[in-house]
User: Fold this.
Amino acid sequence: DQQVKQNSPSLSVQEGRISILNCDYTNSMFDYFLWYKKYPAEGPTFLISISSIKDKNEDGRFTVFLNKSAKHLSLHIVPSQPGDSAVYFCAAISGYALNFGKGTSLLVTP
Amino acid sequence: AAGVIQSPRHLIKEKRETATLKCYPIPRHDTVYWYQQGPGQDPQFLISFYEKMQSDKGSIPDRFSAQQFSDYHSELNMSSLELGDSALYFCASSLGAGSLGEQYFGPGTRLTVT
Assistant:
């Protein structure tokens, strides 16, 4: 059973606008969340993370928001750039398990 | 239940030496992933193997190589070690490839390069 869900398989955003990628989880024991970015034929690259004791973490153009009561997190990219086009994976850690969502493919158009 | 086993747990090497880290996945898991976590940093994906074949390659330096053996254990070989290679290296295993899925990671090997 998928414990980390990314319900939007794809998203298209215009350059300069905000990209919002969503992630839901079911396991309340998850205590750390990460976002990875993956280009075709390459491995995932770590982007940003957030601990369950926080509700927001910002790093440059990337901000992750965590809503524990809703078991929901989101990644905001502002402003979006064509180079951001990739598949974005949400991941959650509980103990020694690292659970990935199935990914959302983001396309940023000029 | 059996978990992912990594050996050694701690390793101290000098610059320019070589190191070999070993990972034994959970029984019946056929996919192994290697991550590097520097001090105060989040895990960076290095490389993964599915059924003894390299499946994904991340930010693994050319000085490093890895392989997965017939019993599905994996070894990460690191040569010409640099001070910046000091980090926690952990591997994770999962069943099946095609997506990153649910990975179970080991306790890690802490490598210190002096």
